[in-house]
């Protein structure tokens, strides 16, 4: 009997002529090729990757710190009424346009981010931001001119620039969505696989919450209106918009170079191994003749020859084939995980809960400026200086940021941790790490607690806690800011814990789309209540107000109380939905999912 051949060519000649079984997903990986990535990567390349990963964090934080510029809307929203003589419906039309544009394209942008990477998204965001703010600045100038000559409907409506203003805020909303998604996805994939996944997500989300605070301070201090007729502290909106346009274009360019996912192939390989081990994916189904997947999780529709037959015959794999192989595998796995996410009934329950929580918070933040104005009727003789919208935008930003960091840190320390950083399939694949002497508190418990704080703030406002007492409004804005910030931080953290990080941008994008409708609905509800109160108060000028503003401005509890009582009830409904997803029939607890 002759000894086995040792030469690769001899080995190849002894291969059977019949097709061999299709290899599993894991065996098709670059790590299973003749030489592994780790063994061929030079020390210089490893250092470059470490540097790239390190630079991605400050770049993501910078992008997030600037992405939330639209949250400073309350800083100048009241000037649309005072200067442009917009109705409350028209002001909310701008806020709603931005909110819809900020949330509606999130699934599409998240899908693109997972597959093309965050850098193109950041660059596109910078361009869209620049166009949007410049368009809004031009529109504002036109509206000021129209208001001066009464072209906006006799001082009771928008002029010729309103359509351009709406288009500008739509672009601003899309830019916000794209830049925020690129920053959060970078941190989730580069730093969200370890023990500190909560903090990894909380950092950019907290930075996003800070953006409204620091930008409102910049606007109220560096861009004050020079018009002698301007109110004290009134912002020069045109100059402020031009500044934001330039700033965000620069940040987008920086993000195009600094936002990179490091070792993404390893992330996909780990996901493949986990999913194959759980039995959720069958690697033999990846390629069939013609390049189509058979199990419905997604298909590569381009007709092409099976690359693995070619590899068997040749015994080699060049870099181009390896790259194409990794790309196809990544697409197939991400499509499979998207399908699983969409068919999980608890996801829809959780997403509806997010919808009912975030909508009221968005409506409060967007309308905070006009709400504050209702607290100070012209007939009220108050001592001291009235509180300003800029102050409360900052309070919301500070409390929101602090709570986002707090919840990210506390959930890392106190919440149970699954063994896998990928999608949790069954009880056996995701047991919690044992903890000693440290109590375990579910992330859902944190979410429900802070949602209750959010509803408390809304109910306090609706009950008249701050009416004629603007000095108390900081309690309302602080409670709403804390609840809103925690919900926005904990929701994506819970998504990564249950459904993994490799498809995070797509999954989070699907859930984040829901608040768009919520913010619009509650904005319209508030506008209707406000406008009804203004008309009830108004046939004549109120408290000496200019007749041009009669039927536009409203004062007192009747301007907002019914709307905010309904918003508080909405948050209570949301808590019930999240509780059902967690503890209800076939919920996370029954399925053994660690959260």
Question: Helices, strands, pairings?
Answer:
Blueprint: H1 8-13, H2 37-40, H3 43-67, H4 73-82, H5 88-103, H6 106-116, H7 118-149, H8 162-191, H9 197-222, H10 237-258, H11 264-278, H12 307-314, H13 319-342, H14 345-374, H15 389-414, H16 443-462, H17 473-499, H18 504-512, H19 514-537, H20 561-583
Runs in which pLDDT lies below 50 for 5 or more consecutive residues are 1-38, 284-305, 427-437, 539-548
Principal-axis shape equals globular
* CATH topology description: Growth Hormone, Chain: A
Helical coverage, percent range: 55-70%
Identify the CATH homologous superfamily.
MFS general substrate transporter like domains
Note the run of SSEs as H and E: HHHHHHHHHHHHHHHHHHHH
Strand content: under 5%
Mean pLDDT: 78
Distance between the termini: 60 Å
Number of helices: 20
Sheet having the most strands: none
Rg computed from alpha carbons, rounded to a whole number of angstroms: 27 Å
In CATH, what is the class? Mainly Alpha
Any key phrases for this structure?
595 residues; mainly alpha; Growth Hormone, Chain: A; 20 helices; 65% helix; globular; disordered N terminus
């Amino acid at each position: 009997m002759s000894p086995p051949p040792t030469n690769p060519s001899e080995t190849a000649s002894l291969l059977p002529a019949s097709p061999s079984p299709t290899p599993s997903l894991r065996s098709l990986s670059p790590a299973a090729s003749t030489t592994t990535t780790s063994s061929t990567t030079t020390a210089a390349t490893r250092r470059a990757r470490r540097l790239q990963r390190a630079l991605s964090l400050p770049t993501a934080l910078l992008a997030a710190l600037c992405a939330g510029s639209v949250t400073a809307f309350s800083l100048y929203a009241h000037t649309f009424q005072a200067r442009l003589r917009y109705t409350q419906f028209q002001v909310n039309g701008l806020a709603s346009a931005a909110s819809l544009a900020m949330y509606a394209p999130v699934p599409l942008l998240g899908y693109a981010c997972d597959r093309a990477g965050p850098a193109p998204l950041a660059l596109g965001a910078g361009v869209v931001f620049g166009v949007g703010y410049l368009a809004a600045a031009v529109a504002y100038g036109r509206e000021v001119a129209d208001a001066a000559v009464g072209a906006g409907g006799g001082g009771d409506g928008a002029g010729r620039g309103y359509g351009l203003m709406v288009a500008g805020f739509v672009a601003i909303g899309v830019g916000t969505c794209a830049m925020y998604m690129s920053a959060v996805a970078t941190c989730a994939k580069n730093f969200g696989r370890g023990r500190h996944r909560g903090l990894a997500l909380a950092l950019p989300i907290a930075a996003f919450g800070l953006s409204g605070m620091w930008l409102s301070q910049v606007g109220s201090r560096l861009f004050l209106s020079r018009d002698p007729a301007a109110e004290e502290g009134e912002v020069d909106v045109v100059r402020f918009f031009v500044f934001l346009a330039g700033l965000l274009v620069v940040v987008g360019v920086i993000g195009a170079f600094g936002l990179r996912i490091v070792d993404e192939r390893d992330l996909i390989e780990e996901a493949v191994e986990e999913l194959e081990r759980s039995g959720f994916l069958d690697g033999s189904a990846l390629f069939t003749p013609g390049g189509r997947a058979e199990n419905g999780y997604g298909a590569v529709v381009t007709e092409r020859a099976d690359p693995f037959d070619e590899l068997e015959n040749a015994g080699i794999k060049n870099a181009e084939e390896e790259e194409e192989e990794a790309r196809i595998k990544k697409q197939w796995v991400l499509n499979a995980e998207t399908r699983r996410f969409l068919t999980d009934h608890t996801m829809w329950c959780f997403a509806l809960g997010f919808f009912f929580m975030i909508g009221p918070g968005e409506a409060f933040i967007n309308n905070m400026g006009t709400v504050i104005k209702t607290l100070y009727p012209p007939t009220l003789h108050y001592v001291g200086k009235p509180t300003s919208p800029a102050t409360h935008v900052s309070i919301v930003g500070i409390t929101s940021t602090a709570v986002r960091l707090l919840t990210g840190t506390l959930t890392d320390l106190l919440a149970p941790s699954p063994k896998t950083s990928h999608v949790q399939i069954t009880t056996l694949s995701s047991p919690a790490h044992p903890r000693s002497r440290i109590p375990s508190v579910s992330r859902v418990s944190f979410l429900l607690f802070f949602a209750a704080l959010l509803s408390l703030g809304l109910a306090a406002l609706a009950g008249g806690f701050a009416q004629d007492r603007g000095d108390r409004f900081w309690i309302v804005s602080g409670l709403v800011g804390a609840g809103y910030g925690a919900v926005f931080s904990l929701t994506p953290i819970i998504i990564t814990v249950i459904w993994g990080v490799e498809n995070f941008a797509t999954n989070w994008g699907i859930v984040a789309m829901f608040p768009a409708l919520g913010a619009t609905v509650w904005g319209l509800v508030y506008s209707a209540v406000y406008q009804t109160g203004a008309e009830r108060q108004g046939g004549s000028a109120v408290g000496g107000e200019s007749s041009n503003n009669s039927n536009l401005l409203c004062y007192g509890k009747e301007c907002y109380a019914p709307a905010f009582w309904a918003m508080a009830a909405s948050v209570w409904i949301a808590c019930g939905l999240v509780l059902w997803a967690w503890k209800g029939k076939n919920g996370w607890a029954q399925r053994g999912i660690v959260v």
